[in-house]
Specification:
8-stranded mixed beta sheet; alpha/beta; single chain; globular; 280 residues
């Protein structure tokens, strides 16, 4: 269910479900606030796992990385300096397999991992602070990484974690908090429940959402930030990415069309731009 919320496009006319959910959440908040909170937390923090299995070729290796929040599942291919791939909400490391094969063939070790609560990693729930902590754990296990490649919500974690390696962002989610709040409230969920869940996540992980917004972590990078983004992306607004590119000279933005939010990952346009930006 949370994927439908995270990746819903805003509609001008609210469906009947909005009024039903609004009435139900308001009523539950009044008569059973703890139950309402727990159900809202479960709804918002449970990513949908893709049940479709992708067969890995013999060239790929898999391993587990033990961390304080459970084991992270890592998939890698190739030898050489590591290029780390980090996916977005309800995604997985397997989204990157075709791109990873090309990176490995270019003389690098391509390493992707499933975030907590995603793919084959431990955990039932996920959130943005856990995305950041997961990527930090992976980066700490690597000596002198070549670059970080990130997609969608994974771009926020990437920008928060390191300013010392080149970044390649695919469909970044600038304006994340505002668009996320809008989408949640447009489902009919009560504002108090939404705010309560976010506050519980902040307290649990000692991170404030206002301090981890990607816009705050674009400046001060030692390397260029390369971004590829579809101009008609329905889930991550290109206009906000373009604003960042106009404000920061170290952002190298490539605008594309008809690649959407997911197909763009393994597109030929993305690979050619990556070769030119990171491996030339």
């Amino acid at each position: 269910m949370s994927s439908k919320i995270y990746f819903s496009s805003s509609a001008k006319r609210k469906p009947l479900a909005y009024y039903f959910i609004k009435a139900a959440s308001t009523t539950a908040l009044k008569i059973a606030p703890k139950f309402a909170f727990n159900q809202t937390r479960k709804l918002l923090l449970t990513p949908v796992k893709n049940r479709k299995r992708t067969t890995l070729s013999a060239q790929f290796t898999q391993q587990k990385l033990a961390t304080e929040h459970g084991d992270l599942h890592l998939t890698s291919i190739g030898e050489g300096p590591a290029v780390v791939f980090t996916h977005g909400w309800s995604g997985s490391s397997r989204q990157f397999l075709p791109l990873m094969e090309k990176v490995a063939a270019s003389g690098f070790k391509a390493m992707a991992f499933d975030h907590y609560g995603h793919g084959e990693s431990d955990g039932k729930f996920a959130n943005l602070p856990l995305f950041i902590k997961g990527l930090k754990s992976v980066m700490a296990s690597i000596e002198q990484p070549k670059a970080i490649v990130s997609h969608s919500m994974g771009t926020i974690a990437a920008l928060n974690v390191s300013k010392d390696v080149p970044h390649f962002l695919i469909a970044p989610t600038f304006g994340f908090y505002d668009s996320f709040e809008e989408r949640i409230l447009n489902t009919g969920i009560h504002q108090h429940l939404f705010s309560g869940v976010l506050k519980s996540v902040e307290d649990e992980h000692d991170m404030r959402f206002g301090e981890i917004l990607p816009e705050l972590h674009v400046a001060g990078h030692a390397h260029p930030i390369h971004i590829i983004h579809d101009q008609k992306d329905r889930f991550a607004k290109f206009e906000l990415t373009n604003q960042q590119a106009s404000q920061h000279s170290h952002i190298n933005l490539k605008a594309v069309n008809k690649l959407g939010h997911g197909r763009i990952i393994n597109s030929e346009e993305t690979w050619q731009f990556m070769k030119q930006s990171l491996f030339a």
